[in-house]
Amino acid sequence: MATDITGELDAWRGLPALQQPEWDDPSEVAAVARELATQPPLVFAGECDNLKDRLAEVALGEAFVLQGGDCAETFSGSNADAVKNKLKTLLQMAVVLTYAASVPVVKIGRMAGQFAKPRSKPNETRNGVELPAYRGDAVNGFDFDAVSRRNDPHRLLQAYHCSAVTLNLCRAFTKGGYADLRQVHAWNQDFVKQSPAGQRYEQLAGEIDRALTFMKACGASPDEFHSVEFYSSHEALLLEYERAMTRIDHLSGLPYDVSAHFLWIGERTRQLDGAHVDFLSRIRNPIGVKLGPSTSADDALALMDKLNPDHEPGRLTFVTRMGAGKIRDALPPLIEKVNQSGAPVAWICDPMHGNTWEAASGHKTRRLDDVLDEVAGFFEVHRALGTHPGGIHIEFTGDDVTECVGGGDEIVEADLHQRYETACDPRLNRGQSLDLAFMVAELYRKAQ
């Protein structure tokens, strides 16, 4: 039995595997994979099953997903302050959505494993020098020199350890009192005075305080007020890493990728006959697939048949990344066909990746207005079809970066250079993230 499962889990090795680094020495990769396979799990099968149950509620229209975090995590960012700031932003957004939209929010961090990124070209050339492209800290370094840009498999081990540190901090913050709803004011003290979004949040926090005081006076103080369920996620891009982190659960005898609770397949690696789709079809985690504007309804149905043939609720999430100008035309045919099939699918909007452009300064950026417009289009389509807009998937940071333009505390193109710190794509800062949360809450109320 175990041998059969192992063979199935390695079937991807005989299939086309896109976006994999060219490692110098296969034996070095194999040695790292063997060491990873001996490491403790980062998450547990039961936690993955719990998330699957939550996502089943999303597919039924009973909950909403808030998934977010860094475009590409860095090893240097795996520290207490950076993790706390990201988590604080996610919690604030979740509070806005839960209270203002009256909907249970499933909180998934794009954290504790998002150390690799697909690239449009394998190499990068500067001033006549050609080196491997930066593929994320799990593969190579950001600095443009031969030593830094070497694809080094030992970085996979460092990615594991940084993921463990990040996840440990997240567990401590979410279970150790920091996520208590009575802390809603404390999460905001550092930027409420100078931020329009912060001031709006503070007003909502006051309403929550009054509601909690009323409930306490009535003798109600549920456990859910004092901690939160928090789940980790990343793109399952580096297959050697994901395979090495897959374990057979001793209770069920089924394989789980214990590198994260939720894993997704990117738009560039969702080929039906490809290695990524095959591998993720064989693990029992809840999984997602990114769908761009070129996705056909038949593509979506074929992915469902391959990844969730038993129509298991909560197993499969489609994350649409269409672009503000395309979502209203590209999304309806997909939802209609999927809905007609009767298969349970959670639909989430990624309004970031279809709206990237290059400013005159050379910085990649996004307009918050475009992000908001794509989310609005996502809700409009679902409202017109009578289906459930299940969540949002965004790239943000808890820091006051200047990477996306717009927002209540407006950033303009000339500001981009001030704090442009991303390792890859531009992220919303904390104020912009809260602006988005308030708008999504309003859209959700209207959609009900």
From TrEMBL:
The protein's Enzyme Commission number: 2.5.1.54
Positions that bind phosphoenolpyruvate: 110, 267-268, 290, 321
Keyword Transferase: yes
Pfam family, one: DAHP_synth_2
Keywords: Amino-acid biosynthesis, Aromatic amino acid biosynthesis, Cadmium, Cobalt, Manganese, Transferase
Residues binding Mn(2+): 71, 353, 395, 425
Family note: Belongs to the class-II DAHP synthase family.
Any one GO BP annotation for this protein: aromatic amino acid family biosynthetic process
Gene Ontology molecular function: any one: 3-deoxy-7-phosphoheptulonate synthase activity
Record field: catalytic activity: D-erythrose 4-phosphate + phosphoenolpyruvate + H2O = 7-phospho-2-dehydro-3-deoxy-D-arabino-heptonate + phosphate
Cofactors required: Mn(2+); Co(2+); Cd(2+)
Cofactor, free-text remark: Binds 1 divalent cation per subunit. The enzyme is active with manganese, cobalt or cadmium ions.
Superkingdom to which the source organism belongs: Bacteria
InterPro entries: Aldolase_TIM, DAHP_synth_2
The protein's annotated pathway: Metabolic intermediate biosynthesis; chorismate biosynthesis; chorismate from D-erythrose 4-phosphate and phosphoenolpyruvate: step 1/7
Entry keyword annotation includes Phosphoprotein: no
Protein's organism: Actinomadura barringtoniae
Name of this chain's protein: Phospho-2-dehydro-3-deoxyheptonate aldolase
